[in-house]
Design brief:
CATH superfamily of the largest domain: SPOUT methyltransferase, trefoil knot domain
Structural class: alpha/beta
CATH class of the largest domain: Alpha Beta
Number of strands: 12
Order of helices and strands: EHHEHEHEHEEHEHEHEEEHEH
Number of domains: 2
Strand order of the largest sheet: 8-7-6-11-9-12-10
Helix content: 25-40%
Strand content: 15-25%
CATH architecture of the largest domain: 3-Layer(aba) Sandwich
Number of helices: 10
Length: about 280
């Protein structure tokens, strides 16, 4: 394993750029994972990192040691590098770094042609906070969403903060950045549901079963009129309390899992009526 201690080495310079520059990440087609959880999620999903970077003290951490052994045994082509603790702490974006980073290629997914999987899509318009975006990705992965489309103006889905908030969700979703959401809606062959506070039906009284796509708008402006016109159904979440609105990540989670609830409730009812177990 190569050992690097100088900040003037090209690798630390590259890692710093990947931490701070969305343009550099796009140009290089590479994202930086920080910590054992993201790396474990990456490996569990069948992704192979391009490079693994550990700190001197991190290499002695039992969990990181197991990851290193796994990679050396099963993924021997992955380049592994060690940085001094001082240099590593200057690169990591977290206050108390665990001691492991990984470089992964950012995928550019095509539209799925998988007919065995029921499409469940989300379109995000102008979601600018990376924490909100990562939280939505995490809820989407848990709810079984297959594809997520981000408009121009959304936060970078592969930024360190979005990745941390996503908690590994990136590796089970097809994420399409800079998408034309109107064109996506035109080609979607299913139910399109937009969230809005105006002229909208009760989420819990809306049939969300089957092939569906949710549209969620920006934190301040909501869904644009052009996209609202593409939706067959407009929904709002009943709020009996005094809050004017919900955080977009919270609203998305409620909507996605109301669809999940409906799908599973109907399935359970059908099984009960036929005597199935």
């Amino acid at each position: 394993m190569r050992h690097i201690t100088s900040r003037e080495h090209p690798l630390p310079k590259k890692l710093l750029k990947l931490q701070h520059s969305a343009r550099y990440r796009r140009d290089e087609g590479v994202a930086l994972l920080d910590g054992t959880h993201l790396l474990q999620s990456c490996l569990a999903s069948g992704w192979v990192p391009e490079q693994l970077i550990v700190s001197e003290s991190g290499s002695q951490h039992p969990e990181i040691g197991q990851l290193l052994l796994h990679i050396q045994k099963h993924l021997s082509k992955v380049d592994c590098v060690m940085l001094s603790d001082t240099l590593f702490s200057q690169i990591s974006a977290v206050k108390t770094p665990v001691g492991v980073l990984a470089l992964v290629n950012i995928p550019r997914p095509a539209m799925s042609a998988d007919t065995d999987q029921t499409p469940f899509w989300i379109s995000l318009e102008g979601i600018q906070d990376p924490g909100n975006l990562g939280s939505i990705l995490r809820s989407a992965a848990a709810a079984g969403v297959t594809d997520i489309f981000l408009s121009t103006g959304c936060a970078d889905s592969w930024s360190p903060k979005t990745l941390r908030a996503g908690m590994g969700a990136h590796f089970s979703l097809r994420i399409h950045e800079n998408a034309d959401l109107v064109q996506i809606a035109h080609r979607f062959d299913g139910k399109i549901v937009a969230t809005t506070l105006n002229q909208a039906g009760n989420l819990y009284q809306t049939d969300l079963r089957g092939v569906a796509m949710f549209i969620f708008g920006s934190e301040g402006g909501g869904v644009s009129q052009k996209l609202l016109e593409m939706a067959q159904q407009r929904v709002k979440i009943p709020m009996p309390g005094c809050a004017e609105s919900l955080n977009v990540a919270a609203a998305a989670a409620i909507c996605l899992f109301e669809k999940v609830r409906q799908e599973y409730s109907i399935a359970d009812t059908d099984e009960s009526s036929t005597g199935s177990k």
